[in-house]
From TrEMBL:
<protein>
    <submittedName>
        <fullName>DUF924 domain-containing protein</fullName>
    </submittedName>
</protein>
<dbReference type="InterPro" id="IPR010323">
    <property type="entry name" value="DUF924"/>
</dbReference>
<dbReference type="Pfam" id="PF06041">
    <property type="entry name" value="DUF924"/>
</dbReference>
<dbReference type="InterPro" id="IPR011990">
    <property type="entry name" value="TPR-like_helical_dom_sf"/>
</dbReference>
Length: 176
């Protein structure tokens, strides 16, 4: 089994509730995929665009896995740009259309995790087209935070950013 198939097989063998904020997976993902993440992160995004499956595996490796491997540490966001570049390439080429809806939802996730309003707008469009009301709800929540603040205030402490007055006045803004 190649690396991309191993990543996809692992992720989609999990129960859906494990995908979201399950700290029990942190050490397992770190031990199983940490070296692969460190090795593959050196490659350009184009290296992951040969097939839609490779693109999906790259996004999982660089967007989802770091959120487990580096929970509560800035490194969890360190490969977000690479994941976003892979997702953009896959969507721009139409490779996303070859994936099942659940897989496409994960391929689109880097747009939702971006602190760029254009990416957030694209996220809402992609999740609208996907037709999953729950995922669209989260895409809109992420979009609204970026539209309001230009960044995710809940990342400030982890990233060493000083909260701005509007963020302080709003309190902790994590609607999900």
């Amino acid at each position: 089994m190649g690396w991309a198939e191993e990543v996809r097989s692992y992720w989609f063998s999990l129960r859906p509730e494990q995908w979201w904020h399950d700290p029990s997976l942190d050490s397992e993902i770190r031990e199983r995929f940490g070296e692969l993440w460190a090795e593959k992160r050196q490659l350009p995004a184009s290296s992951f665009l040969a097939t839609s499956e490779d693109a999906l595996a790259g996004v999982l490796l660089f967007d989802q896995f770091p959120r487990n491997m580096f929970r509560d540490h800035a490194d969890q966001f360190s490969t977000d740009l690479l994941a976003l570049q892979i997702a953009r390439g896959a969507v721009d080429s139409g490779a996303d259309e070859a994936l099942a809806p659940q897989e496409r939802g994960f391929l689109y996730m880097p747009f939702q995790h971006s602190e760029d309003l254009d990416d957030q707008q694209r996220s809402v469009l992609l999740f609208t087209a996907l037709g999953d009301a729950e995922q669209l709800r989260y895409a809109r929540l992420h979009h609204d935070v970026i539209e309001r603040f230009g960044r995710f205030p809940h990342r400030n402490a982890i990233l060493g950013r000083t909260p701005r007055p509007d963020e302080v006045a709003a309190g902790e803004v994590v609607p999900w």
